[in-house]
Design brief:
Strand content: under 5%
Helix content: over 70%
Structural class: mainly alpha
Order of helices and strands: HHEEHHHHHHH
Largest sheet: 2 strands, antiparallel
Shape: globular
Length: 176
């Protein structure tokens, strides 16, 4: 995983292509939500967490922050700056944890990262909604959906990276 920064330097075309593809997927998934009673469940956290595990912090920010910003800009612009800051910070923290924590097990490092990323996402959107809509009640009303979205994104991204072999494939691609 530590090679991702090297990929940006040694093969910038490949790094840019993968980052752009993941950002486009984030834009698509942030443009619609699955209806659940009382709100919507957005699946873009899966892409944000997965990209943050795979990519270096810069790539993670581009996919998470800028991708969510563009998705909101195109389809629902009110929270676009909240998305930029929240998902951008979420992705950077996950990426740094997945690379820099002093554990040998990559899964443990990534799990700690997605946990803190989920906390950042839930707190960021709760504060952002309270600010944007001038009511803490609305932000608290949406809190269960934010927690569900963060949990789904964290769990599915860990399954994709570690149980489905996406991290292994990513490592092989980096060596090419």
């Amino acid at each position: 995983m530590a090679q991702s920064t090297e990929l940006r330097k040694t093969n910038p075309t490949r790094w840019l292509t993968v980052t752009a593809l993941l950002m486009a997927i984030n834009v698509v998934l942030s443009s619609f939500g699955l209806p659940v009673p009382g709100g919507h469940l957005y699946l873009n956290d899966i892409v944000i967490c997965t990209a943050a595990i795979l990519l270096d912090p810069l790539g993670a920010f581009v996919v998470g922050g800028i991708g969510a910003f563009l998705g909101d800009l195109l389809f629902y612009p009110t929270p676009m700056f909240v998305s930029l800051a929240t998902h951008g910070l979420q992705a950077v923290v996950i990426s740094i944890c997945a690379r820099k924590l002093p554990f040998k097990n990559q899964g443990v490092k990534a799990a700690i990262g997605v946990f803190w990323g989920a906390v950042i996402m839930v707190a960021g959107y709760t504060c952002g909604r309270a600010f944007l809509y001038s009511t803490i009640e609305y932000a608290i009303l949406k809190l269960p959906f934010q927690i569900l979205q963060a949990a789904v994104g964290a769990i599915v991204s860990l399954i994709l990276c570690f149980n489905c072999g996406l991290l292994r494939l990513w490592s092989q691609m980096e060596k090419l």
